[in-house]
Amino acid sequence: MNVALTGATGFLGLRLLRLLLERHGSLTLLTHAATGDVLGRVTRFLGVTGAPERLIAELPTRTRVVPTDLSRPRMGLSAARFGELADTFDAIWHSAGSINLEGDLASLRRVNVEGTRNVLELAAAGSRRPVIFHVSTAFVAGVRREGVVYEDELDDTHGFENAYERSKYEAETLVHAWSRTHRRPVVVLRPSILVTDLPPHAELPRHPLQVMDQLVGDALRATGLADTRRARADLPVARLVGRRYGHLNMMPVEEAARAMVRLADREPSARVDTYHVVHEHDVPVAAVTELMERLAPLRTRLVEKRPDDVSALEASMDFYPGITPYLSHLRRYDDTRVRTVLGAPRSLTRVDVDYLWSGLRPTCPAPPAVASAQARH
Ligand SMILES: NC(=O)c1ccc[n+]([C@@H]2O[C@H](COP(=O)([O-])OP(=O)(O)OC[C@H]3O[C@@H](n4cnc5c(N)ncnc54)[C@H](OP(=O)(O)O)[C@@H]3O)[C@@H](O)[C@H]2O)c1
User: Fold this and answer.
1) Residue 368: pLDDT above 60?
2) 20 to 30 A Cα–Cα from 42, which one of 81, 95, 180, 270?
3) From ligand 1's centre to the CA of 8, what distance in Å?
4) How many domains does the chain fold into?
5) 0.85 cut: is pTM over it?
């Protein structure tokens, strides 16, 4: 079976690549021409994550790297090369994308929507009629902060928290239209927020919580409040708009990738099969603010609406629309389809503050847990 993977150098793609190499003899990596050193990056990931030496040694012979730009017509390839590639594949995993939560719609559309269109064109051109595994996001549900989101739902009636969500929604609608037109199956995999307890490493791609960590640090530095030597009582307080009983779904990236490749073992239906690849338990928003307090010298307080007298720190910590809105989420994702195929989740990792901390601060021990600030107010 000839399998292609886009986004193989990404946070999720690297995990998919490792698992796909356990199942298939070889893989074609449709990589990002603009960045390069693909095998070096993959090798370093495999080394850091303790992959068998044999797998690392075999990497150059078991993978074929095809530099592309997914956002360009025919992925930036010549017509001949595109046609030749298209005829090679039995399955295409599409994990590439831009996850820039603060990005503008035009740039996000180029990668997420046009990129998906070009992957679909590759699949349409292929004589072997490859199955597509399209990595979407549970956040295509948009500004629907409460209730239950079902795997078959896809609509824009609630709008979107940000351009990233909209671009991923638009990509999914393309997938549905393509499947109807070509009468071909597509498997849509919708993970929630992907996290890891693997300590950050210069060789590894950044993940969304690292971005949050950096933004909080930047906000403190920009307002001259980054001094960590203050007594706790003297730490600056940031009032953040959010729900005290809010919760978010966070899925360990390794488990998400494992679930995805297991779902791919199932014969797809003739249509679009969508799966919520989510954790059984949500993470309370209060745990997220507690994490911020461990990471940075500040205290947080969740408030219902933006105060009229925002401080300089609060103004620079209002990461709207990429992060702030999610502190008000309390919806759940139904994953009946996943459970039907894979059974009830077994031994899922507990995602809590200690787990998330491990994925952000490798070298220093976690400070003693403090009662979260909002609990005192
Ligand atoms: N991370 C999450 O929490 C999360 C949650 C839900 C869904 N998802 C979805 O999961 C997928 C993978 O996300 P991720 O976390 O792995 O993202 P990531 O770490 O940012 O990786 C993105 C990948 O896409 C590639 N890429 C970007 N632009 C490209 C282009 N124009 N042409 C070809 N390749 C391009 C990147 O290559 P270079 O690195 O070489 O630029 C990289 O391999 C995305 O579709 C995302 O929407 C992610």
Assistant:
1) no
2) 81
3) 8
4) 2
5) yes
